[in-house]
Amino acid sequence: MPYRLIDPGETLDYACDWGDFLADGGSSGDTIQTSLWSVEPPGPTLTGASVLGGITRVFLSGAQAGQVYRLTNTATTALGRTAEQSWTLRCENR
Question: Which domains occur in the chain, in start order?
Answer without folding.
Answer: 4-91 (2.60.40.10)
